[in-house]
């Protein structure tokens, strides 16, 4: 019966440890998943920001394109005006040239001709003024045409410079839009990667939960099988009772440094989160560890992370475990009474300091020891 009891308890311990490991993995994966979701939200927000910039740039390009077209139209208009003024100027110069050539061909209209052709002093003065007026008027016409031509030429130059500047800005905006497009594509790829990672994490979490559920179901089946085989079970003396019975004592007097259930703790510089299967009672190394209730010892020896472990079967599916001991004072098969010294406090196995790790199990499943002691 001892072999069956321990085998059942050992599987429950191993199963609970596996569930504990799964819970730790689930907890860590959930933290990663939460961060993943935040990262996805941040990337989505960033993508929206880039999209807004792209839309703004597209509007600027649209407006600028219209400005370029307007500038080009102005340039064409200025070119047409310049050509027209150039033709006028050429015409004026041509008329002036013709006049000068005609004067030259006719022998010239010099002062002597004017004097000789004048009948009086008054007539002479009038003729001289007329000649001066004709040349002055021709020169003024040419000068005005030249001035207008140069003004239009400057206007054309300004419009050309404006068009060049607008096209340059247009090219810059096009390059900006291209760069923003690349940023958006990069963020979109990043979001896809995050979504893929999130799905993987969710799948792992589901697998670990399913694994834990299978283990719990197996523990429950084994528990029912064990109780059926055990029948009335080991009574453990007058202090024993059913799963709901009280009458337990604390194995060690001391401060509870870690309670039952989910916890976060630190070892060195690393922080861990897991499900604690019992309670930790701090006490100096060598402090006597007492049986919480009468029963039969089904394990006394080394048990992995528990270090030196003692397990007592109290009958009716109730068992207690005492871990991390520095010394074992009982052996398998030994009947012990409540309060009997079964071990000494230590820090063996997975332990950060001397304490008694105390568990209460009902049909192999851990329960909160504080409900019993």
Keywords:
single chain; 3-stranded antiparallel sheet; about 60% helix; 2 domains; 3 helices; alpha+beta; about 375 residues; Helix Hairpins; 8-stranded antiparallel sheet; Glucose Permease (Domain IIA)
Low-confidence stretches: 229-245
CATH level 3 topology of the largest domain = Helix Hairpins
For the record, the count of structural domains works out to 2
What's the total count of β strands?
Answer: 13
Total number of helices:
3
Mean pLDDT: 78
CATH uppermost class of the largest domain: Mainly Alpha
- Termini Cα gap: 27 Å
Could you say which structural class the secondary elements and strand pairing correspond to? Answer: alpha+beta
Name the CATH superfamily assignment of the largest domain: Methyl-accepting chemotaxis protein
What's the main sheet like? 8 strands, antiparallel
List SSEs in N-to-C order. HHHEEEEEEEEEEEEE
Binned, the helix content reads: 55-70%
Radius of gyration: 52 Å
Describe the structure in your own words.
By secondary structure, this protein is an alpha+beta fold. It has two domains: 1-231, Helix Hairpins; 234-371, Glucose Permease (Domain IIA) (Distorted Sandwich), CATH 2.70.70.10. It contains three helices and 13 strands; from the N terminus they run H-H-H-E-E-E-E-E-E-E-E-E-E-E-E-E. The strands form three sheets. Strands 1, 4, 6, 7, 8, 10, 12 and 13 form an eight-stranded antiparallel β-sheet that branches. Strands 5-11-9 form a three-stranded antiparallel β-sheet, with no helix packed on it. A hairpin with a 2-residue loop joins strand 12 (355-362) and strand 13 (365-367). Residues 229-245 have low confidence and may be disordered.
